[in-house]
Structure formats: C-alpha cells, structure tokens
Amino acid sequence: MSGLLSPVLEEKQTSPVQSTTNISTIGHGRGGSEAGGPVLASSTEHLPEGPLRSARSVRRDSRSASYGSDAVVPKDLSSSKPLTSIAKQQQILEKLPPPGHWKAPHLSEPLGRVQQITFNLLCLTSFGHSSLDSVWAAICLEEDGDESLWVEGTRQLYERLNNMLIVAGLLLASSAVFVTTVPPRAAMVNYTLRGPYICILGSFALLIGGIIVGSASLLVIGKAQPYWSKEVLYANRFHVYCTLIMLSYPFFSTAMGTLLLAFGLLSAVWCAEDRAIQGACVIVLILPVSMGVLFGVSCATASAESRLRKTYGALGGQGAS
C-alpha cells in the first residue's frame, strides 16, 4: 500500500517546484527573445487562480489588456490636463495673429495717442478688455472646431448688456417720475425749475436711447455667427469702429444719463432754501465719488500685465530682431 502511494506523494512534492520553474522560464515571447530574458508580464497567465496571483500582476494584466501587449503604458494617466481658455488664446494668437485693423492704431499715425486711447476705451466699454484679441481668438478657435470661447464670450457680452439695460430701466423710471410730477415740498427740493428740469429731461432722453440701442445689440449678438462677424462686423477699420461704438453706446448713455439726473437733483436741492438738505446732499455726493477715487488709486499704485500681452510682447521682440 505504501508503495502505491509513494509516486503520488512524490508528484505532489515536486509540483510547486515545477510551477515556480514555469514562472521563470515560460514567457519568452517576441520581446523576451529579443531582450534575452524572461518576460514576466506574460508569465502571469500560467499562474493558478488563487493566492499565488498577486495584486500587482492583476494590475499589470489589466493595463496590458487596455493598451495592448506591445504598447507602452504611461506612468501617470492624469498628466494630460485640459487647456484653460487663456492657454487656448495664447496658442491660437501665436499661430494666427490678428490683422492690423483689429489692433490699436500705432503711435506713429496722426493723433496716434488719441486714436489708441479711444480704441482701447471703446474695447473696454464693449467687451471688458482693452483689445480685440479675445474676440479674434474665439473666432479662430471656432473655425478650428472649438466653439467654447465663442460661446463663453457671447454669454458674457449678453450679461453685460442685460445688466446695463436693467440699470437704465430703473433710472428711466426715476427720471420719468421727476418729469411728470410736482414736488411735494418745493421749499426742500424744487426740480421744476428750468435748470434742474432740463437736466432731468436730458437724462430721460439719453436713457431711452441707450435702452433702444442695447436691445438692438442683443438681437444682433444673438444671431451673429463667428464667420459673419469677422467678414462684416470687423471687416476693416471703419467696421470695427462702428461695431465698438454700437456695443459701447449703452454704457456711455447710461453713464451720462446718471450724471445728468444726479446733477439735476443736486441743483434742485441747492436752489431750495433748506440748509440741512443741502448739507446732506454734499455728503451723499462725496460717498460715491470717494469710492471711485479709492478704486483709481488702487489701480494706479499697482500694475499687472496680462499673459496675452506678455505673449505678444515676446512675439513682437522676436519679429523686430
């Protein structure tokens, strides 16, 4: 009986050794024969299911199945991050710089400084940027199949115009009340006098014009396509100025209407005989003016150059050299 069992026991004792021998010898595939050594990644296929198959071999097999047997598995799969909007603008502006009529006039032109300040001011009040680089980059990216910048820029322009229309509507209602009503106490505030009344009427007219132009601009922006905008709205220098004036007119009309309305009410108070109201009016005037002065001082004492402008400066230096 013991003689019958001895071959079986010997086979069981030698089987683990054979399995380990298989691990170190099996797997001389195409890569292993060329390198002159065993390919352990393929040897895991011969391991039995159970504790001998480690977690590392399972991960290696899953990556090999995902990328192919001959592919190189990247070390960090999350290293490729999506580009930000500014990075996209930098790339497209380096590849396709905007034409000359999209840029601010050069200082060497007649009244170059005045033209440059006017152009930058119109761009700032229209799009919130001192140049049209963002608009050109959005159009070029849309032609390449990426419309994210164009959609985002259109949304921001919509929000700017909507906010200005809301403010203009509130001021228009206030000026209409002063135009059509009689002051309850003329001794305190008499806005029916000639000077204050003319200012309030001018504010009413400017606000109506700003609302009309802003509403028309919203209709044009909603239907404008990138290619049509480039070929029509920004075709040459004249078209660029027309577009910028149309988009910035609601801002200027609302600002001028606000100033006229405030000046008319202040003059109405100063034409009255109540000294307490006149003193309070001075305080009310100083508060918003001081906020504007603080903001101007904060911007004047510190400066930051945009990344797009740095890129253009580097490109301009290379072109000049």
Automatic annotation (TrEMBL):
<feature type="region of interest" description="Disordered">
    <location>
        <begin position="1"/>
        <end position="80"/>
    </location>
</feature>
<feature type="transmembrane region" description="Helical">
    <location>
        <begin position="195"/>
        <end position="221"/>
    </location>
</feature>
<keyword id="KW-0812">Transmembrane</keyword>
<feature type="transmembrane region" description="Helical">
    <location>
        <begin position="241"/>
        <end position="270"/>
    </location>
</feature>
<feature type="transmembrane region" description="Helical">
    <location>
        <begin position="164"/>
        <end position="183"/>
    </location>
</feature>
<keyword id="KW-1133">Transmembrane helix</keyword>
<protein>
    <recommendedName>
        <fullName>Transmembrane protein</fullName>
    </recommendedName>
</protein>
<feature type="transmembrane region" description="Helical">
    <location>
        <begin position="276"/>
        <end position="300"/>
    </location>
</feature>
<keyword id="KW-0472">Membrane</keyword>
<feature type="compositionally biased region" description="Polar residues">
    <location>
        <begin position="14"/>
        <end position="25"/>
    </location>
</feature>
